């Protein structure tokens, strides 16, 4: 190849304030807590690192993240998105969440595919290290 | 009597000390492709690699660690049905090839390009990830940037067709994930591609 390319852009990573995922499914009452403010969740909204997702007694939500991993919550659930880093070129990254209450379904994505156990879910009973791919978790805690 | 119901009966009679509560649970779910995953569970100073269809741990409140529990698939449905039903439509990927390194898509890839719009329409909120790949000609750092450039060309094609740039991520994987395994410095048109993931 003899084409000279002017390549200013470097391979990109996800930074602290970047969207890390998008809300794809929603039913009932679901809120996102961000920097102390409570936001009513809507399909198409993005979620950020450090957000807390809270579902009501009638609530459920499904989110697809930047590494194609997916998480969905059942009713009366609380999930903290503690840490998400992902390099779209190398697929290196970490994804740490805490399920404080309720039910969570997980499909791991490219972060775990690249680095087994680079994804963790903390619950009141255990720290889960994910080798892939699909599992569900219930946490005995209060969602409010 | 199944193993699960026998264990449940024993638990009901309190004959087994190890009948863990199901207030906390971790359950491995079998996947559509038959692959069975694994989760490493660190609980109360004990580490378990949980693997196998519907392998489950329960209990673990206070200082005790989580222990194996029997869980029928119907019970998984009862407890986790709402969470499982809320799972997003899985990402879907299309592969595009170009004619002799030009920016013109091969005819079969033009069809795939059009199919992307149908996949977007199935979803209430769709994002695109456009990922470029190279063959192993050239050094890896150069290929990272070349693959990203190709991805951006395709991203622009979608923007020209009316999609919003903020909904399209361009990424370059360089010579990683070769579709056709080759040694280094090997020209292989089958590896020079762009994948479109709709999610």
**How many domains comprise the coordinates of chain A?**
1
Please state the oligomeric state of the protein chains shown.
Answer: heterodimer
Strand order across the biggest sheet of chain B?
Answer: 6-9-7-8
Total individual domains of chain B: 2
Approximately how much helix is present in the residues of chain B?
Answer: 25-40%
CATH superfamily of the largest domain in chain B: OmpA-like domain
User: What is the strand tally of chain A?
Assistant: 12
Weakly predicted, low-confidence segments of chain B: 14-18
Q: Approximately how much helix is present in the residues of chain A?
A: under 10%
Number of separate helices of chain B = 4
Structural class, from secondary structure content of chain B? Answer: alpha+beta
Strand content of chain A: over 45%
Shape of chain A: globular
Give the chain pair forming the largest contact, with residue counts.
Answer: A-B, 56 and 64 residues
Which segments of chain A are poorly predicted (pLDDT under 50) over 5 or more consecutive residues?
1-12
Query: Would you tell me the structural class of the helices and strands of chain A?
Result: mainly beta
What does this molecule look like?
The complex is a heterodimer of chains A (144) and B (199). With 144 residues, chain A is mostly beta strands. Chain A contains 1 helix and 12 strands, in the order βββββββββαβββ. Chain A has one domain. Chain A is globular and about 40 Å long. Chain B is elongated. Chain B starts with a helix and ends with a strand. At the A-B interface, β1, β6, β7, β9 and β11 of A face β1, β2, α2, α4 and β8 of B.
